[in-house]
Structures are given as structure tokens and as C-alpha cells.
Design brief:
- The complex is a heterodimer of chains A (about 325) and B (about 525).
- The radius of gyration of chain A is 24 Å and the shape is globular.
- Chain A is built from 13 helices and two strands, in the order H-H-H-H-H-H-H-E-E-H-H-H-H-H-H.
- Chain A has a domain of about 180 residues: MetI-like (MetI-like fold, Orthogonal Bundle).
- The model of chain A has no long low-confidence stretch (mean pLDDT about 85).
- Chain A has about 325 residues and is mostly helical.
- Chain B has about 525 residues and is of the alpha+beta class.
- In chain B, the strands form four sheets. In chain B, strands 1, 8, 9, 10, 11, 12, 13, 14, 15, 16 and 17 form an eleven-stranded mixed sheet that branches. A four-stranded antiparallel sheet of chain B has the order 4-5-7-6, with helices on one face. Chain B has a two-stranded antiparallel sheet with strand order 2-3.
- In chain B, a hairpin with a 3-residue loop joins strand 8 and strand 9.
- The longest helix of chain B is centred in the first third of the chain and has 18 residues.
- Classes of the chains: A mainly alpha (about 325), B alpha+beta (about 525).
- At the A-B interface, helix 2, helix 3, helix 7 and helix 12 of A face helix 7 and helix 13 of B.
Chain lengths: ~325, ~525
């Protein structure tokens, strides 16, 4: 058991190191930050000097090893664009992304379960089929298009909701929250729908198929025979048994909500880490890109590690 | 009676609301620092012109006018410039403005770590005469010096020293990266890099305020569609730029309008003058046809600039004959003709040069630097194909583009140039002079164009005080690079801003947006 855990952790670290190496190899193709950092009146001397100062004249492997060594000491470098420590910038941007991901997850889970149950029970109903068809459209349209359509409808045409940004935020210690102001709450609506729509349809379809499976089971028939109200059968007996796979999938999807917030954040100018990453690519801000990619891969590797360990806890056959 | 007073009070509140407004605007790029000496880039300098001021400033028509200096004159027969400073000016923190602050800002701006130090290359010494008089001595007579320092912003010595920011620090940042203390019309109330920056009017400003803004907030919005939606939905009052394809829609909609102008930036084609051989396509290794001026002239004749402006720029831009637009100082009115579109003439020139059967070559182009840059290059490619020369177009993001040009990896390339000094001498120095690292000349002359007469005339232009003589020399240089077809200047890039209908503002060709000219009705 212990050796299994140890092996998994070692593998995770290896994966992280490889991700970092690939990332740094890619940075050499993204372009040169020097021209963004120096003005029009730069000379070749300036270019060479700055490149030397930043260590850009060295091969990417050397740059990577330097990055890892200082990252191990908690130092992720200074942003080329903003001239501030990357760790500080990421900490400022994290609340926006995490709040958006959390609201999207809640939206996806609650609406997904309700619609899943509904479409499972009213399999032949007109509304259920309409929901299924619409969800198909929702899944097949790319995120940025959904975002722009929502902005066009609810901001530009109806003028109900803000078209961009986070609204007013309240600072609580090092955390800024949009939950405490009305403008902050209304600003969350469109981006979280955009971000959560895909997960919502995924959960809905999962719940629906599980539910249809469960409804055929004997104990549901017996419950009906006992004369239990349909509501109790559906929600207390049937739904509970469908939730195990749903929770597993939701947990794994939370990671991708955070990681794939990039597009939603760009469309809504949502000041989170994804938007920061997009800006960093345009500016070739290598320290920011490197720290963000490492953060995301730590998150994914961490979630996978936990899932693996949970399997061990659940399945005795793995404990040998 | 009570009702009446309430009504009056409401009316008063409404009236005051009509003359003073909150204002919000969006642009694609966040100014990366609040330090006026750390970075020499248009987003930073344009933004900080609202907060800091220079000795001189540019008016609505780009002409230089008094700001922190009330007057200036050449002294000792051109050995330097004496500036008489404005009295009674205070910084935002209440400190008085004196000549010592100018000296300090010069030392800060000309230091090794400052990006703007190239502005002070001609300065040999700065002498404080008294509290309100200061002399900038130059190594040679420099008629353009007051023009060239319009963006040189003055910082308070005591404030900077008290906050450990006596030198800019672009790489690691310091207090002045996030805070500001200028003398300008607006104070920096809040700065959140990459998110929002808020300015409020400075009550103690020396000049009379023309604006009626009570608070102004800037938000960078990178995605053009989001910016347009923000303007249309009324979440922001002004955006810069409006994508050209959306301009008509924004203009026709109730509540919003588009303000069009032309920028200082000239878009041109450049050649590999010093390349002995072509570098791309199947003709790689063949002698470089662009070393022949007739071939370059054929390119100039083959490109139908008017068609490009009609279709790709949707009529927003203007064609240009030289490396600066007519709005710039030193524009050569005598050389205002550009080669006309002439397919037969181009073919004849190619035949004369020995390329009747044409040839193929590589055209490099950025795809995110200038307005619709890649589309322009595609149009150029198909126009050149009409006269029998085949361009193999390679477009790439600007982050990869400049290193590629520096490595000399092109046969022909697209370049845009905005003269930092708004004077014709600027592109001659950077684009036409023979590259010379030591003298800092020709640093953007990627193709290595070289002409002895131009190199000889440039220092003379730089130090000539007499306007007529100076213009005659500029005309001569213009004639040389035109007849040599060193570049093919095509058009001046358009400026397209969008605002709410109730906003009045001034659009300057340098693409600086100044809040002090904004009124919200």
C-alpha cells in the first residue's frame, strides 16, 4: 500500500517535470519578449544587454533548470510585463477564476441533475426532448460563440446584465470576492453559464442514463408496489443511487473548469488567471506562462493522484 | 413650499449631474507601468500624459505649446535651450514644482536603466540657472529639441527619493511602477495592473480644466468583440480601437458613434537591399532582383494602394508618398507624388531589368501588429502576381516577426513606422540611414539600404536651425529615397475610435487619448 502511494507520488513529480520541460521548449517558438520590453528607439546593444540579463541567450534547458531551482525556493520570478513577482500576480488573479469555476460547477451540477432527472422520467415528453435537443446545440457550439451570443442578447439587446468584467469586488484579507455586491453577482451570471454549459449537459446526460437504468431495477418496482409517492421514489431512492458516478465526474471536471476558463475569461474580460495567461502569451511573458502552466499541471496531477489513492481505499484488490 | 424646495434640490442635482460625469474607457493594451521614464511605448506615454506633464506639450493639432515651461529660446547661438518655468505649479501631493525637479527628472530619464534615455542623446549638460530657469546644453545645435521632449515627464525629486524610486526599474518594479505623482490634470486614484486604473481630476491643476469628468476608469479589453459589446451596451463610454469591420455598425446604432482619423503610422514594403541572393522559394540562391531599383519601382507600380484602401481599410485610410504623413513636421510637399498604379509600366520595368519572365521570392508579414496586416499582404501578393512576380507569403505574430527581420530572414517585408518625434528626420534616421550601431543610426533599416548622400545630409538636417534650409535638405533626402524606391510607402494607418453619442473628445494622430479634452453631455 505504502509503496504504491510512494510510486504514484514519484510518477506525479516526473509528470510535472516533463510538463515543465515541454513548456519551456515551446516558449522558444512563442517569440521574443525583447521587442515588447524595449521601445522603438532600442539599439542592438540594448537588445543584447536585456537578453543577457533575462538569461534568454541560454538554451531552454538551462532556463528551465533555473526556473525549477528558484521555484523550489518559492520564487517564480518577476513578470516581464508588469515588473512584479509572478506569485503575487497569480494570487491576485486566483480568486476571480476560483469563484467563477465554483459558481459554474454549482450551476452545472444543480441544473444538470434536475434536468437529467426530468428528462429521464418524462422520456417521451415534448419539453424533455426539447431540452435534449437544445443541450446538443449547447455542446456543439464553441464556448466563445456562446459567450458572444449571450453578451449580444443580454447586454447589448436587453441591457440586463454587464457585458464584461467582475463588477465591484470586496477585499477580504488577500481574497477579493464578487459575492457580496449586486454588481459582482450579476457579473457572474453570463460567464458562469458560458463556462458551465458544457459540464451541465454532460451531467444531465449522465444522470439521465443512470436514472433510466435505475428506474428499471427491482427495488423501484417494489417501492411502487408499496404505494410510495412517485416524488419519494424518484428523489430518495432512485436519485441517490445515480449520484456515485456523477460525483466522480464532477470532481474531475472541476479541474477542467479552472483550466478551460481561459476562453470564457477572454470573452468576458474576466480578470482571472486564464486572461492573465492569454496576455502573457501575447507579451511573451515567460515567467507568468511558466508559473501558470506549472500551477495547472500541479492541480491536474494532484486531482489524479487523489483519485488514484481513493481507488486504493475503495478497492481492496489494489492493496497488495 | 417643502415640495418646491425638494423639486429645486432634485433639479440642482440633475443639473450638476449633467455637467460632471463619471467616464470609463477601454483599450486593447494596459499601460504596463505608471513610471514615465521606464518604458518608451505609446500605451504608457499616452496614458501617463493625463497624469504627468512635460516642459512642453502637444495641443489638439499636435503643435508644441507651453506646459510646465512658459517659454523657451535657443541660447549661445544654438549651444543649448533655455526654458523658463511656470511658477505656482504643484505636484499632486502638494509639493512645489521647481527647476530642481526638472534636473532630477533629466537625471532619472537619461540614466542607463531608463528606456527613454535616447531622447537625451543630444544633451551634453543640464544647468539650473535659478528656481524657474533651466538650460539644456546640446552637443550640436538642435532645433528639434523642444519638440522631441514633449513626452519627457517631470517627477518630483523629494517624492521619488522618499519612496526609493530615484531610478526607474522596469525589470523588478518599484514604487513608481504602481504609484504616480505628477502635475497633470488627473491624479492616479487607484491602480490594479491589468484590471482597472482610476483617475480623478486634480483640483490644484495650474491650467483651466476643459473637461467635466469627476472620475475616469480605464479597463484593458483585449478581445475586440467584447470591447464593441461593452460600448454598445453602455458599459464603457469609449473604446479604442473599433475593429474596421464593426465601424459602420457602431456608427449606425443609436447611442454610439465612430470617430475616424489617420494615425501617424505609415505602412510600407521593405526590401533586402544588402542581400546578394534571394532567400526563399525555388529561386533561393539566385541573384536578388530587388537590388535593382527598376524592380523596386515595378513593385511600387504594381501595388494598387487605392484598391487596398477601398476594400481592406473600407475607405478609412489615405495613401502616402513618403515615410511620413502630411500632418508631420518636415513632410515634403514638393515630393507628394507617389508612383501611380500601372501594370503595363511595371511589366516594362521588369523586362528592362531582365526579369520579363518574372521570379518568385519570400514576403514576410506580421499578423497581429498593424490593422488587417495579413490581409494587406495577401492583397499585395495577388497584385504582384499580376505583373508576373510570385510572392510566397509567410505571416506570423509580431513576437516572432521582429526576431525574424533582425536575422535577415526575408526577401521583402511589411513595416509600419510611427515617427516618435512627429518629424520627417525620425524615419530617415531609423529607416534610411546606413545601419551604424555606434552612432545609433538605421537601427530599423533591416534591409540595409545605404546612400552616401543621405548619410551626409542627416547630421546637417539634425542641426540646421533655419527652417527653409532644413526643409530643402529633407526634400533632397526624400527625393533620393523615392527615386531609389528604398521603400514602397503605401498608406497611413487609420484611427477608428468609438464613443457614446454624448461624449465629445479630441483625437490626435499620435493615438493618445487625453481626458482633459473630454466632455460628457
Amino acid at each position: 500500500m505504502l509503496s504504491y502511494i510512494f510510486r504514484r507520488i514519484l510518477q506525479s513529480i516526473l509528470v510535472l517535470l516533463v510538463v515543465g520541460l515541454v513548456a519551456f521548449a515551446m516558449f522558444t517558438f512563442i517569440g521574443d519578449p525583447i521587442d515588447n520590453m524595449l521601445g522603438q528607439e532600442r539599439t542592438q546593444d540594448d537588445i543584447d544587454r536585456l537578453r543577457g540579463e533575462l538569461g534568454l541567450d541560454q538554451p531552454f534547458v538551462v532556463q528551465y533548470v533555473k526556473f525549477i531551482l528558484s521555484a523550489l525556493q518559492g520564487n517564480f520570478g518577476v513578470s516581464y510585463e508588469q515588473g512584479r513577482p509572478v506569485a503575487q500576480i497569480l494570487a491576485e488573479r486566483a480568486p476571480a477564476t476560483l469563484e467563477l469555476a465554483a459558481v459554474s460547477a454549482v450551476f452545472a451540477l444543480s441544473l444538470g441533475v434536475v434536468l437529467g432527472v426530468y428528462t429521464a422520467i418524462r422520456r417521451k415528453g415534448f419539453v424533455a426532448n426539447l431540452v435534449l435537443t437544445l443541450s446538443l446545440i449547447g455542446v456543439s457550439l464553441p464556448t466563445f460563440l456562446i459567450g458572444i451570443l449571450l453578451i449580444y442578447l443580454f447586454s447589448v439587446q436587453l441591457d440586463w446584465l454587464p457585458s464584461f468584467g467582475r463588477g465591484e469586488t470586496v477585499a477580504l484579507g488577500g481574497w477579493t470576492t464578487g459575492f457580496l455586491t449586486s454588481s459582482g453577482l450579476t457579473a457572474l451570471i453570463l460567464p458562469s453559464i458560458t463556462l458551465g454549459l458544457y459540464q451541465m449537459t454532460l451531467i444531465m446526460r449522465l444522470v439521465r442514463s443512470e436514472m433510466m437504468e435505475v428506474m428499471r431495477q427491482d427495488y423501484i418496482r417494489f417501492a411502487r408496489a408499496r404505494g410510495l409517492p412517485e416524488r419519494v421514489i424518484t428523489f430518495r431512492h432512485a436519485l441517490k443511487n445515480t449520484m456515485v458516478p456523477v460525483i466522480t465526474v464532477t470532481g474531475l471536471q472541476l479541474g477542467s473548469l479552472i483550466a478551460f476558463a481561459i476562453i470564457t475569461e477572454t470573452v468576458f474580460q474576466w480578470p482571472g488567471m486564464g486572461l492573465l495567461f492569454i496576455n502573457a502569451i501575447q507579451f511573451v511573458d515567460i515567467p507568468v506562462m511558466a508559473a501558470y502552466l506549472m500551477l495547472i499541471s500541479v492541480m491536474f496531477v494532484g486531482i489524479n493522484l487523489i483519485v488514484d489513492l481513493l481507488y486504493v481505499a475503495i478497492d481492496p484488490r489494489l492493496r497488495t | 413650499m417643502f415640495k418646491l424646495t425638494t423639486c429645486t434640490a432634485v433639479a440642482l442635482v440633475l443639473a450638476s449631474a449633467a455637467v460632471a460625469e463619471k467616464f470609463s474607457w477601454a483599450g486593447t493594451t494596459d499601460p504596463q507601468t505608471m513610471d514615465p521614464h521606464a518604458v518608451n511605448s505609446a500605451p504608457v506615454l499616452g496614458f501617463l500624459n493625463n497624469v504627468y506633464e512635460g516642459l512642453v506639450r502637444r495641443g489638439k493639432d499636435m503643435a508644441v505649446e507651453p506646459a510646465l515651461a512658459t517659454s523657451w529660446e535657443a541660447i549661445d547661438g544654438g549651444a543649448g535651450w533655455r526654458f523658463t518655468l511656470r511658477q505656482g505649479v504643484t505636484f499632486h501631493d502638494g509639493a512645489a514644482f521647481t527647476a530642481d525637479d526638472v534636473l532630477f527628472s533629466y537625471e532619472r530619464g537619461s540614466s542607463e536603466v531608463a528606456d527613454v534615455r535616447s531622447w537625451f542623446a543630444p544633451v551634453s549638460e543640464v544647468k539650473v540657472v535659478d528656481d524657474y530657469t533651466i538650460d539644456f546644453m546640446t552637443t550640436a545645435p538642435n532645433p528639434l529639441f523642444p519638440d522631441s521632449i514633449a513626452n519627457f515627464m517631470i517627477m518630483d525629486r523629494d517624492w521619488a527619493e522618499a519612496n526609493n524610486t530615484a531610478r526607474p526599474d522596469k525589470e523588478a518594479g518599484n514604487f513608481a511602477t504602481l504609484n504616480a505623482n505628477g502635475t497633470g490634470a488627473f491624479t492616479l486614484a487607484d491602480r490594479q495592473p491589468g484590471l482597472t486604473t482610476t483617475l480623478t481630476p486634480f483640483a490644484g491643476w495650474w491650467d483651466t480644466a476643459e473637461h467635466n469628468i469627476t472620475e475616469a476608469t480605464f479597463t484593458p479589453i483585449e478581445n475586440p468583440a467584447t470591447a464593441v459589446a461593452a460600448l454598445l451596451s453602455g458599459d464603457v463610454d469609449m473604446i479604442n480601437p473599433v475593429p474596421i469591420q464593426d465601424a459602420d455598425r457602431v456608427d449606425q446604432r443609436d447611442g454610439t458613434k465612430v470617430i475616424r482619423g489617420i494615425e501617424a503610422r505609415v505602412i510600407m514594403l521593405g526590401f533586402g537591399h544588402d542581400h546578394k541572393e534571394l532567400k526563399y522559394t525555388s529561386d533561393a540562391g539566385e541573384p536578388n532582383p530587388f537590388q535593382d531599383a527598376r524592380v523596386r519601382e515595378a513593385v511600387a507600380k504594381a501595388v494598387n494602394v487605392d484598391a487596398i484602401l477601398q476594400t481592406i481599410m473600407r475607405g478609412s485610410a489615405e495613401s502616402v508618398s513618403q515615410l511620413v504623413s502630411p500632418a508631420m513636421r518636415g513632410y515634403s510637399g514638393a515630393k507628394a507624388d507617389r508612383p501611380s498604379f500601372d501594370v503595363e509600366g511595371a511589366k516594362a520595368l521588369l523586362a528592362e531589368a531582365g526579369y520579363a519572365d518574372g521570379f518568385s521570392f519570400g514576403l514576410k508579414c506580421p499578423n497581429n501588429r498593424y490593422l488587417n496586416d495579413e490581409a494587406v499582404c495577401q492583397a499585395v501578393t495577388s497584385m504582384l502576381a499580376q505583373v508576373g512576380i510570385d510572392a510566397e507569403l509567410e505571416a506570423m505574430p509580431v513576437q516572432n516577426y521582429w526576431p525574424e527581420l533582425r536575422e535577415d530572414n526575408f526577401d521583402m517585408y511589411l513595416l509600419g513606422w510611427s515617427p516618435g518625434t512627429f518629424d520627417h528626420e525620425h524615419p530617415v534616421r531609423f529607416l534610411v540611414s546606413t545601419p551604424n550601431e555606434e552612432k545609433k543610426l538605421g537601427s530599423w533599416n533591416f534591409g540595409g539600404f545605404s546612400n552616401d548622400k543621405v548619410d551626409e545630409l542627416l547630421p546637417a538636417i539634425q542641426s540646421e536651425i533655419d527652417e527653409t534650409k532644413r526643409q530643402a535638405m529633407i526634400d533632397e533626402v526624400t527625393g533620393i529615397y523615392q527615386s531609389e524606391h528604398a521603400y514602397v510607402p503605401m498608406y497611413v494607418q487609420p484611427l477608428v475610435w468609438g464613443t457614446r453619442d454624448n461624449v465629445e473628445l479630441t483625437q490626435r494622430p499620435d493615438n493618445f487619448f487625453l481626458l482633459r479634452w473630454v466632455t460628457v453631455n
